[in-house]
Write a structure and sequence with these properties.
48% of the residues lie in helices and 10% in strands. It is α/β, with parallel strands linked by helices. Strand 2, helix 7 and strand 3 form a beta-alpha-beta unit. The chain is elongated.
Length: 424
């Protein structure tokens, strides 16, 4: 474990004497005393938060604890579920899941809990921090993969890769190399890391009607409402998975690391999406956004009697919540787009017929021109050239008609696509 954690870490403590002093102090901690370990774990979490607040490259490793706690609570992982964070950073989601389930298991179930929580983190510093974080909370052998979670071809993933719960805040705004992009289907390849992780999450969810896999994912606004490849991935999500809830976070939740507006996506693999509930977390009265010094609190998500937590189990539309009937909008868009697509297909078919007619005439011209030889009588050459001229005259309007039909097909296809893709 120690060799794995420190393998790619650069030791900046060049003084051997100072390192010895640090080790002596650590040796004074009684790791067999629950109270001391509890204090140390809380101190460690505070240190992680301070690293986030100091920005640099450590901010991306920290998701505010109230956000993590809320996501775990409403996802309700069960003992025996395989729980995963494929981009675990410092291990916040893994620790919170462990703390959520720990009071719900007995001594015999302890090993089941330990072995059911998995992580993935490719960067050496957060990998070190995550392992330490888990060890301080009682993990005997943290199971964190130290390679890029995107390195496998998702087309080759089978049931052995399925998990029950995924809780994660994947990196967004980053770019992946072409070798990683090649692990994703044509038409779904992208440099955007968040979109690649979303596809990985979808693929790794358990497909079981009795117990479908369910994730909770932090996702940026810009990517969520994008088009092109993003639109096709959302089409896969909404038609093959049940995206039942989107919780919209206020501005500044991830300050100072990023000011990008973010959402929490909750979906499962129980079937296609019918309705999507939206809930917008309000800012405290008098506040314009959250900041580093005034961050989001657990109370901002409400409790059993008010706010998002209370709404989650008894859903009704209100000032903060509304329901979007996606499947109704989908069928309406499909109905309105279909006539345009039909017109596009008809125009394309007409264009192909015209192209075939043109090809027949061009073949005739070639055959006629091949008959003109050096010894062909002038009278015959003149007659052949007249026939060629006539055929070319026939081709000219046909080409214009073909061009018009192809433009019509493109225009009608565009109109249909605009109607259809608007729902995504």
């Amino acid at each position: 474990m120690i060799a794995k954690v420190f393998r790619d870490v650069t030791n900046r403590m060049t003084s051997g004497a100072l390192l010895r002093d640090v080790l002596n102090l650590i040796n004074q901690i009684h790791f067999d005393k629950t109270e001391e370990v509890h204090i140390l774990s809380r101190f460690y979490e505070g240190m992680l938060k301070e690293m986030r607040d100091a920005a640099g490259d450590s901010g991306e490793f920290y998701t505010p604890r109230p956000v993590v706690k809320f996501m775990v609570e409403v996802t309700e992982p069960q003992l025996g579920d395989t729980i995963m964070d494929p981009a675990c950073g410092t291990g916040g989601f893994l620790v919170e899941s462990y703390e959520y389930l720990k009071p719900r298991c007995n001594a015999k179930e302890w090993q089941v809990l330990q072995s059911s929580i998995l992580g993935g983190e490719a960067k050496s510093l957060p990998l070190l921090l995550a392992n330490m974080h888990l060890l301080l909370h009682g993990f005997e052998y943290p199971n964190i993969d130290d390679k890029n979670s995107l390195r496998f071809s998702i087309a080759e993933m089978d049931e052995s890769a399925w998990v029950d719960v995924i809780l994660t805040n994947p990196p967004f705004g980053g770019e992946e190399e072409s070798a990683i992009q090649d692990n994703f289907p044509p038409g779904r390849k992208t440099k955007e890391t968040a979109l690649l992780f979303l596809q990985l999450i979808m693929r790794r969810l358990r497909k079981d009607a009795r117990k479908p896999g369910r994730p909770a994912v932090v996702f940026p606004n810009g990517v969520l409402f994008g088009d092109g490849i993003c639109g096709r991935i959302k089409e896969d999500l909404l038609n093959n998975y049940n995206l039942h809830t989107i919780v919209r976070l206020p501005n500044g939740v991830f300050a100072p690391y990023t000011s990008i507006p973010t959402n929490l996506l909750f979906f499962d693999r129980s079937g296609p999406t019918e309705d999507i509930w939206y809930y917008e977390i309000p800012l405290p009265e008098g506040r314009k956004n959250f900041t580093k010094t005034k961050p989001i609190q657990d109370s901002d998500f409400g409790d059993e009697t008010s706010g998002c937590r209370a709404w989650w189990k008894k859903r009704k539309a209100n000032e903060q919540a509304w329901k979007y009937s996606f499947r109704d909008a989908y069928h309406k868009a499909l109905k309105e787009a279909q006539p345009h697509w039909d017109a596009a297909h008809a125009a394309e078919a007409a264009a192909k017929e015209l192209a075939q007619s043109i090809q027949v005439l061009e073949d005739k011209i070639k055959n006629l021109e091949a008959q003109i030889l050096d010894f062909t009588p002038a009278k015959d050459q003149k007659a052949i050239k007249a026939q060629v001229k006539g055929l070319k005259a026939e081709i000219k309007p046909l080409r214009e008609q073909e061009r018009e039909q192809r433009e019509l097909a493109k225009d009608e296809q565009g109109k249909g696509d605009a109607i259809y893709w608007a729902v995504y």
